[in-house]
Amino acid sequence: MASEELRFVTAPDGMRLGYKLVSQGPHAPTLVMIHGLASNHSRWSEFVANTDLRRDWNLLRPDLRGHSYSMTRKTYHREHWCEDLAAVLRQEGLQNVAIIGHSLGAQIAMDFALRYPTLCGGLILLDPVFPELLHGRLGKARRLRPLLWLIVRLLRLGYALGLGKREFPIRDLHALDVKTRELLKQTSASEIARLYTNPRVDLEFIPLANYLQDVLEVVRPLPDYTRITQPVRVLLSTGTSLTDHRALEAKIGRIPHSDIVPVHCNHWPMTEKPEEVRQIIEETCRQWAAEGQVPAAGVDNLSTIE
Predict the structure, then answer these.
(1) What are the backbone dihedrals phi and psi of residue 142, each rounded to the nearest 5 degrees, phi first?
(2) Which tens digits make up the pLDDT trace of 44-83?
(3) What is the DSSP letter of 252?
(4) For the residues of 285-306, what is the DSSP string, one character each?
(5) Is the Cβ–Cβ distance between 206 and 240 less than 8 Å?
(6) What are the Cα distances from residue 106, in Å, to 100, 101, 237, 248?
(7) Which of 37-46, 146-155, 175-184 has the lowest mean pLDDT?
């Protein structure tokens, strides 16, 4: 099987972007894996290590701008993340793309599918987030958006003046998953929300402005996702504490060509149900490949990226 490599590309605005790739060549189908808030490419390490797809699929897991190997202290938005992914695809000549995203990553996946419809053959969304349905801290953040924007702008100004030059270690989320599974054997499954939504821990691995920027993008209104034309499979945690489950199902039902696969866990299916989720992802990718949905892009589609 092909080995995985750490690679870099320079975005049109000069930003250096890092990503990991298992490459079968530009004519093989590609699965792009997008991580969530305050996360990085290692969210998918366990999946990449164990999936049968690595035999004949390209497996691409980028670090979003502002995270891990794509670290920056400059302002970024969801539009940058979509443009950055397009830059990586152009660099590698990858055209036959299915995209999987978790939480914030699912938002980016939907946005990318709308911006670059000829490059995206299908979407697998793990617990997509709809801002208006959020509870808890993220629900409060949505109501406090103007204040958070002000804080971020002040922090960015400080960075521009030379403050905040601390280097951040790269968080190993696979190692965290292993540790969490051991803890969950001794405590309630609901404790995972506390373990994975602790800003004080997250801020050991990401600048405060970047963390708040992620939060702002999570609570920012989505584009008109009812215009998505690709097939969409949603893996939906049945016990999520971040949002209203019934309302979330109704939102997903408005996405054309979508279906829901329930996963009995909280909001972190890759942590709680890794084998079950891996099998669903593999079956979905194989199905789309057999149906011709992926590969779905023509040989000239990369020329449409500007």
Answers:
(1) -60, -40
(2) 999 999 999 999 999 999 999 999 999 999 999 999 999 9
(3) H
(4) HHHHHHHT-SS---TTGGGG--
(5) no
(6) 7, 4, 14, 13
(7) 175-184
User: What amino acid occupies position 153?
Assistant: R
| pLDDT tens per residue, range 255-276 | 999 999 999 887 789 998 999 9
CA distance 107 to 297: 22
Under DSSP, the state recorded for 161 is: T
Helical spans, DSSP H, in 161-198: 173-184, 191-196
pLDDT band at 300 (very low <50, low <70, confident <90, very high): very low
Q: What is the rounded CA–CA span in Å between residue 260 and residue 222?
A: 20
CA distance 218 to 206: 16
Mean of pLDDT over the chain: 90
The whole-angstrom separation of Cα 158 and Cα 272 is: 39
Residue type at position 42? S
Q: Supply the pLDDT for residue 254.
A: 95
* pLDDT digits 0-9 by tens, 233-244: 999 998 776 778
8 Å CB contact between 35 and 64:
yes
CA-nearest of 73, 72, 49 to 61 is 49
- Cα separations (Å) of 69 from 15, 170, 274? 11, 8, 25
Neighbours of 140 (CB within 10 A): 11
Closest CA to 83 of 66, 64, 57: 64
Q: Name the pTM for this structure.
A: 0.93
Torsion angles phi and psi, residue 292, rounded to 5: 80, 10
- CA dihedral (30, 43, 223, 282) in degrees, to 10, reads 40
